[in-house]
Amino acid sequence: MVAESSEKNINVTLRVWRQAGPNQPGKFVEYQAKNCNPNMSFLEMLDVVNDNLVTQGEEPIAFAHDCREGICGTCNLVIDGKPHGPHKAIATCQTYMRSFADGAVITVEPFRAKPFPVIKDLITDRSAFDKIQQAGGFISVRTGAGADANATPISKDNADLAMDAAQCIGCGACVAACKNASAMLFVAAKVSQFSLLPQGQPERDRRVLAMVAKMDELGFGSCTNQYECSAACPKLISHDFIARMNRDYIKATIRQTFKPKSNAVAGGA
């Protein structure tokens, strides 16, 4: 005999941001989500709501998703004013309906930032992050067989810090949480994961200067060290990486300013 679950299904009211397109006005629309299994994820609940809307001949709610395992960073929703929802260290897809009380009214919005324009409903264009990454988030090395793991000694402290920075999934929660829409935590993580390793040293100065310049060009705000970014990050990327990047940026700027200029080749005697 299978024991019945003691958890009862819940009913919630959703206040969802609906916007037909990038240049269209938007508004909140209420939907009822009834008999939600408390063990279903927030995205599964939206799937059920959308199935009902389609059955009724209405336009389903557009939202982004992919892996649904907290890996890809695609599911970027603001739930009751918090990027990714009420809990720490998880993405929207890892938020479950048991996190909400029966009869709760839940407000669902897209990530709000000028560099993240709304495409439709809850989907935003976060290609600005791709442009920052393309500006310098890579190393220029020969391709081919992977180097032996012990060929380049790396201290455990630096290896651990580099791995911590590399956990960033580029979801944009740091930008959505920041009152200035700053992308400093994202950029700091991408800069630091290379600056801590030997493979990232040849392009270290060029990388930090290029990525910060691209961030500013795209319209992200400045950092005022309120640390909402690290609090909202689903991977708990530390704001200490911002200080590390700032030091790299200052050193790179000084070296660039005082870099000796090559003498012009003199003409024939």
TrEMBL record:
GO biological process: aerobic respiration; respiratory electron transport chain
Gene3D superfamilies noted in UniProt: 3.10.20.30, Alpha-helical ferredoxin
Pfam family, one: Fer2_3
GO molecular function: 2 iron, 2 sulfur cluster binding; electron transfer activity
Domain of life: Bacteria
Cross-referenced CDD domains: fer2
Residue span(s) of domain 2Fe-2S ferredoxin-type: 10-112
Transmembrane portions of the chain: none
Residue stretches making up the 4Fe-4S ferredoxin-type domain: 159-189
Cofactor(s) in the UniProt record: [2Fe-2S] cluster; [3Fe-4S] cluster
Family according to the record: Belongs to the succinate dehydrogenase/fumarate reductase iron-sulfur protein family.
Official protein name in the record: Succinate dehydrogenase
